[in-house]
Amino acid sequence: TSRMSCWTAAPSDGPASAVVRPGVGVGVGAGGGHCIGGRRRPRRRVLRRGVCSQTSGALLLPVTAEEDAAASLLSARIAMAAAAVAADSKIDNLRDAVAKLGEISENEKAGFISLVSRYLSGEAEQIEWSKIQTPTDEVVVPYDTLAPPPEDLDAMKALLDKLVVLKLNGGLGTTMGCTGPKSVIEVRNGFTFLDLIVIQIESLNKKYGCSVPLLLMNSFNTHDDTQKIVEKYSNSNIEIHTFNQSQYPRIVTEDFLPLPSKGQTGKDGWYPPGHGDVFPSLNNSGKLDTLLSQGKEYVFVANSDNLGAIVDIKILNHLITNQNEYCMEVTPKTLADVKGGTLISYEGRVQLLEIAQVPDEHVNEFKSIEKFKIFNTNNLWVNLKAIKRLVDAEALKMEIIPNPKEVDGVKVLQLETAAGAAIRFFEKAIGINVPRSRFLPVKATSDLLLVQSDLYTLVDGYVIRNPARVKPSNPSIELGPEFKKVANFLARFKSIPSIVELDSLKVSGDVSFGSGVVLKGNVTIAAKAGVKLEIPDGAVLENKDINGPEDL
């Protein structure tokens, strides 16, 4: 019964006795009774507090708290041992199956098995909420307090010659209705993300006479297309290097075997394991050793779709001067960023705290922009020698992010890590609280509307905010599913409206915009079902709620 661990059966008027304990082996004793731990137990007992069993003659007495705790501990240990045996069996079977996969390298196989082993061991660190502290300005440094970079051009060149720019280029543009790498989506004046990145670094190298190379970390999804695309930059004054991040097999949830071993040999059988893989992949590719031999010291890592992630000499100068091995750029949260990871001080080290690590009872507190005021931009500056040291020591054990998926009706699991979570393994790691202008990602067509509008201008590849915009924050823009794909988005605008004085825009239904439209204040446009709503050329809409032509 569920009460068994709380009672001891003691002898009353008969010789039979039994001590009831959880997790102890049961055997058959003389006379047909059962034996527990070698002692004979009567056939039938009625468990009532402090009364005699009419059939057994056993008096049941409460056990002590110490005995009950010991029994519970024993049960827990047995359960843990059983789980460990099951995990070992899963790993052994998985290792055997992965060894037969010819599509990936031995390094990738070893990295994958190590990641899965960590996942099955349940080694995830539990955050003790009471130990979380708000970082001081020494840990998260305000950007405004950084010393200016040297004015001497030779000193600037010397600084920049220690730098490498690495863009994460593994993502596809499928969510915006595009094929191929996301970095080749046109974002402004016919230029793609990649065009703008190359123009920026070209401009930097030309201005200071330095040699900052560009690295692109591709995935198996983007590698072939990217190799063809970078050929158009062959006459550029920058070195462009590409390498692939790891390719891991998806795990079938039912039997914990790799999906490719079951005949799914196409791309759907595999996945790139998150941008936390940037560090081992940089090393495994041989690029890390090459960069170190060239005297490079720091790598600036950023998402290829973040138009605000440009080289900042003030930040580079601060890191080199203070010998910081790792720096994460953070920026003030808005209500749109409440789920973003934040930096905390935890047991004497700076650490990234993601919403998935937060106990349920503290999630609302985590989302508060009053207590947790900053979030991770994923602009990272990392010392190359430190990467080499930690990768060689296999010390980068970032938190694992389980990502369940379904492929052709088969439930699968992919395990990922994030580069920002590595911060706690580096010495003198810091955050820098940067202006919001350094975080300008394009994740959807609503973001595309912002960067294509008069809210920004383009100078030497840099997307620069229009000083005519008085408010520090960008307008809030929500576009309906009719605008989700880039092709549909572009077809619905003769020209991008002026939004310098816009606070918010919500558009839904079959809506299209003429040329020279101006939007100000708060504008909502909702076409009724079956109605095509066209905003005429030159229309000025200020604080308008439009549901049909009659509202224009």
UniProtKB/TrEMBL annotation:
InterPro entries: Nucleotide-diphossugar_trans (IPR029044), UDPGP_fam (IPR002618), UDPGP_trans (IPR016267). GO terms for biological process: callose deposition in cell wall; UDP-alpha-D-glucose metabolic process. It holds the Pfam family UDPGP. One of its GO terms (molecular function) is UTP:glucose-1-phosphate uridylyltransferase activity. It is an enzyme of class 2 (transferase). Plays a central role as a glucosyl donor in cellular metabolic pathways. Keywords: Cytoplasm, Nucleotidyltransferase, Transferase. Its EC number is 2.7.7.9. Substrate binds at residue 275. This is UTP--glucose-1-phosphate uridylyltransferase. UTP binds at residues 182, 245, 274, 305, 443. The keyword Transferase applies. Gene3D superfamilies: Hexapeptide repeat proteins (2.160.10.10), Spore Coat Polysaccharide Biosynthesis Protein SpsA, Chain A (3.90.550.10).
